[in-house]
Write a structure and sequence with these properties.
Shape: elongated
Order of helices and strands: EHEHEEHEHEEHEHEHEHHEHEHEHHE
CATH architecture of the largest domain: 3-Layer(aba) Sandwich
Largest sheet: 7 strands, mixed
Number of strands: 14
Number of domains: 2
CATH class of the largest domain: Alpha Beta
Oligomer: single chain
Length: 315
């Protein structure tokens, strides 16, 4: 398993099932492990899970994936897809056919991971995502909830989907113009850049925020949520965890659901299925979550018609 970064420890459920896990497991990946355990996989078995993390330095991906291939693991789960791409190259370099499951890739075919969504071919399968559409929809929901906003800060991590950064920014700019919003985009992939973004947002007359999904933003969620609260800004996030921890709104496919899909794919492979025959999973669950407790604390009023559309309301 190769990840961009670690977050909170989640070891007990794995240890109870006989896992041997070096290091910590990110909180937002709990659903991946829980899903495998619920399916009865590994029960009573001694399974070694090799976890590698780039620490946000994606240039380390070739080294770390090559190490996993040398260990002759049964399957590699890599998220995001840029790490899966590195794993794909490492497998090819070793002249092996190690199965790879990738996570959250907007265009698996165009990115060269699979031949098609229905029949992936090769040794890879995984999850397709619609993050670009989610981003513009988040902006739309924010505008519906707070019609008077005219200047919005957009936080995006350029290393999460580097191959689609220009596309995401372009589509967000187009959507913002159509809504009469001035969009200030901040490319944030380090804590220093996050701090600088906060300073710039404070200096400008920013009225709201859209925060895309990124492990960095998950790890630094307390810092982000506290800053938004201090500035009393309405904000919508790309990860439900931030809303659970005090953020205002979330829209998209919860990461927990996506990781559950990924666990299903990994389980199929470990039971003998070939990645070439396993269709790429596409998100079918889209949720709007609103934290009314946070709205009250910030002195914000969300229209009833927006609240009624929410799939989950935190009181």
């Amino acid at each position: 398993m190769i990840y961009p970064a670690y977050d909170n420890a989640f070891l007990q459920v794995l240890q109870d099932q006989g896992y041997i896990v070096p290091g910590e497991i990110p909180r937002y990946d709990e659903a991946f492990w829980r899903s495998l355990v619920r399916r009865g996989y590994f029960a009573g078995q001694k399974i070694r899970i090799e976890v590698r993390a780039t620490g946000g330095h994606f240039e380390r991906a070739p080294e770390l994936t090559a190490e996993l291939v040398r260990l002759d693991v049964d399957v590699i789960f890599a998220v995001p897809a840029v790490l899966a791409k590195a794993a794909q190259q490492s497998v090819q370099n070793a002249n092996k056919a190690t199965p790879i499951v990738f996570g959250t890739e907007p265009d698996p075919v165009g990115f060269g991971l699979v031949d098609s969504l229905d029949r992936p071919g090769g040794n890879m399968t995984g999850l397709a995502s619609t993050d670009a559409e989610f981003e513009t929809k988040r902006l739309q929901i924010l505008k519906e909830a707070f019609p008077r906003i005219s200047r919005v800060a957009y936080l995006i991590n350029p290393t999460w989907y580097p191959q689609y950064l220009l596309k995401f920014k372009s589509e967000m700019d187009t959507a913002a113009r159509a809504m009469g919003i001035r969009l200030d985009t901040y490319e944030v992939n380090t804590l220093e850049r996050l701090t600088n973004a906060f300073a710039e947002i404070s200096r400008r007359r920013t009225e709201a925020m859209v925060v895309s999904f990124s492990p960095l933003f998950v790890i630094e969620r307390r810092r982000i949520v506290d800053f938004v609260a201090m500035r009393r800004l309405p904000a919508i996030y790309g990860d439900a965890i931030l809303v659970e921890d005090g953020g205002l709104m979330f829209y998209g496919t919860p990461i927990a659901d996506g990781m559950g899909y990924a666990a299903t794919l990994v389980a199929k492979i470990l039971r003998g299925a070939k990645p070439a025959d396993i269709p790429v999973e596409q998100p079918t669950t889209f949720k709007l979550i609103i934290n009314l407790k946070t709205a009250r604390a910030l002195g914000l009023t969300i229209p009833k018609e927006v609240v009624f559309r929410a799939d989950e309301v935190i009181q």
